[in-house]
Amino acid sequence: MKDCYGFIFDKLPLACLLLKPDNGSFIIVDANRAYYKQLNVEAELIGRPVSEVFRENFEDTSVLCESFDRILKTGYADIFPLSHKREAVTPKEGEVLFQVRNIPIHEPESGSIEFIFHILLDRTIELQEEARLMELQQELNQMKDASRYFISENSDGLFSLDMEGKFVTVNRGIAEMAQMDREALLGYPFLPFCAPYHKKRILNHFRGALKGLDESFEADFIDASNELKTLEVTLVPMRLDNQIAGVYGIAKDITDQKRIQFLVEKQREQLEKSEKKFKALVQKGNDLIGILDQDANYLFVSDSSTAVLGICPEEFIGKNAFDFIHPDDLTRVRSKFGQLFESGQVTVRAYRFKDHTGSWRWLETTATNMSDDPAVGGIVVNSKDITQSHVLMERIKEHSHILEEISWEHSHVVRTPLARMKAVVGYFNENNNDLTKDDFIGVLEESLEEIDQAIIKMVEKLEQNER
Amino acid sequence: MKDNSRRIPCLVVDDDRIFLKIHQHLATKCFGGEVTGFLNAREAITFLNEPGNQRRPFLILLDLNMPEMDGWEFLEYLRISKSDTEIRVAIVTSSTSAQDRLRAKKYPFVVDFIIKPMKEKSLQKLSDRLHAQFNGRSRSA
Fold first, then answer.
1. Which helix (H) or strand (E) holds B58?
2. Is B105 or A4 the better-scoring residue by pLDDT?
3. Cβ contacts of A424 on chain B, cutoff 8 Å
4. What is the set of domains in chain B, with CATH numbers?
5. Residue A97: how many CB atoms within 10 A of its CB?
């Protein structure tokens, strides 16, 4: 029978020692194969003091020694609960966590401790999981605290409503939005806070949530201080035992956001308007608008260049403006361009500019130096095609010149013989004897001939001009 | 017979012989003094530059539209070369142009702008005006 126990002891999968008390210490009287294997011990253990073996194999032997002390003192088995990780021992080699179980075997007659059955239980996995579990529990507790804080202190309104739409729970955020104390808000219905014009819609959303739908909407509310607020609200059904018992809600104050959105929208509209205006003026207008660098190279040209000159804007980019100007006008235009850097703005009167066919168009240009303006960064040139009016003006000048000539001729050439005739008649009437009848007739003939010739010349000139 | 004090020496410059003759006749009647006629302006300049004539006061009846040297060129000559003399000019022209009248006003020594045919009455008025000027000056001198 004893052999039978010995066999079982040796075959036990748990690392076991049988210890015998010896003058305050314990001597190993038996050690099974599992003990040798699990602690990786090769030397003979039997007959050796256990404290010595422990010291050789464990980092900290205090746990083991204290356990023996307790057994000797109480006479009861010293079994640590599994959760006591700190009561576990770790051998010097390996990552194993053993839990110790010391079971006293009493002498039947004296009742004194005859042996101690020392078992090492490999609890590595359990203890590790236990430790992980504890960590998780701790994390969970922290999260609980955090979420409790998150809910109560959140600036967004977090709340729940009962089936009648009365507040059941409210956080600080919703109390601030309502401009009421949290306590006062509890049991108070949400409906009085709705802006009259949105009341019906909000109610529909609330009813939808009570029917089990998730509802999200924006609406206007009026707080206890009578201030209008726009809130973004989400309502989800609150289910208790598979039945809807109310709604959970999140409300976000988007009043400022809406106001900013409105302003941004307004600004965007204004910008669009001015952009359209700009496009109408610059791109679609009849004026040719360009931006030049300080050397008069084109940086930008408006679309109108195609209509005015038959040259598309892209063809101008990188080219020099002076290359398009008539050689006879170049010095004048260059000189004006030079003045631009002192005066800031110059106007260049009629000058010729080459179009896509190589013909000359008459332009008049105002150039403004906006090189210091980062939005422009160049010289803005605004040119008008004055070809038609210039040609017309030239013709008017020609006509005017001819009229002046005719007027002069009329005044001097035609009036002279007339005046002469009048003078002679006057002189003759004074009975001046030095003028004979022949003289008189001669003067008249001569004068009339002059008038005739003058008229012929005048008609010829006019006809020539008509041609 | 004219009073000697009213005698102002006159030059008549006109390329038209008939006008020259008639204007000389009228000038003699109205100014009573020495009247010399010239068919072109250069001859008149030569006369004015003769030693005895250089500082003398003259009234010149000047036509504008003349060949070789026209009346405007003659006026320019006077402005530049005879500004320190007492030469007065009355333009006598067939031109009715306001521009010519305005242009003539730029010369301070032009005292009248008479449109041909020149009437005795016009010249008489001028004569009276000039005598008043000259006599007033000689009295104050």
1. strand B58-62
2. B105
3. 18, 22
4. 8-140 (3.40.50.2300)
5. 20
A420 with B18: Cβ contact below 8 A? yes
CATH code given to domain A285-385: 3.30.450.20
The confidence score (pLDDT) of residue B134 equals: 67
The SS3 assignment for B137 reads helix
Average pLDDT of B9-26? Answer: 93
What is the CATH code of the structural domain delimited by A154-253?
Answer: 3.30.450.20
Phi, then psi, of A105 in degrees rounded to 5: -115, 115
**Residue linked to tokens 């250089």:** B54
Q: How confident is the model at residue B2 (pLDDT cuts 50, 70, 90)?
A: very low
Mean pLDDT by 10 residues, chain A (467 residues): 79 90 87 88 89 82 79 78 59 76 87 87 81 90 82 83 94 91 93 94 95 95 93 93 92 91 91 80 76 92 88 92 95 93 92 93 93 87 90 86 78 83 84 76 87 84 73
> A288 touching B, CB under 8 A?
no
Helix (H) or strand (E) holding A366: strand A360-370
Beta strands in A181-227 (DSSP E): 215-222
B32: left (phi over 0), alpha (psi -120 to 50) or beta: left
Which H or E run contains A323?
Answer: none
Q: Does A423 touch chain B (CB under 8 A)?
A: yes
**B positions 69-88 inside 8 Å of A (CB):** none
Return the pLDDT at A249: 94
Query: Do B105 and B89 meet the contact criterion of CB atoms below 8 Å apart?
Result: no
- B28 shares contact with chain A (CB less than 8 Å): no
pLDDT value, residue B141: 40
Radius of gyration of chain B (CA): 14
CA distance A66 to A59: 15
CB of A427 within 8 Å of any CB in chain B?
yes
CB contact under 8 A, A420 and B117: yes
- Would you state the structure tokens that stand for residue A382, as one six-digit string? 């605004």
CB contact under 8 A, A411 and B64: no
CB contact under 8 A, A412 and B115: no
**pLDDT confidence of residue A97:** 79
Tell the residue number behind the tokens 């009578």, with chain if given.
A226
Q: What is the pLDDT of residues B41-93, one digit of tens each?
A: 999 999 999 998 888 889 999 999 999 999 999 999 999 998 888 899 999 99
Residue A96, phi then psi, degrees to nearest 5: -80, 145
> Which run of H or of E encompasses A166?
none
Asked if residues A290 and A302 have their Cβ atoms less than 8 Å apart, the reply is: yes
B138 pLDDT higher than 60: no
Interchain CB contact of A412 with B (< 8 Å): yes
Longest dimension (CA), chain B: 42
Tokens coding B63: 């036509």
**Token digits for A350?**
């009629």
Superfamily of domain covering A2-122? PAS domain (3.30.450.20)
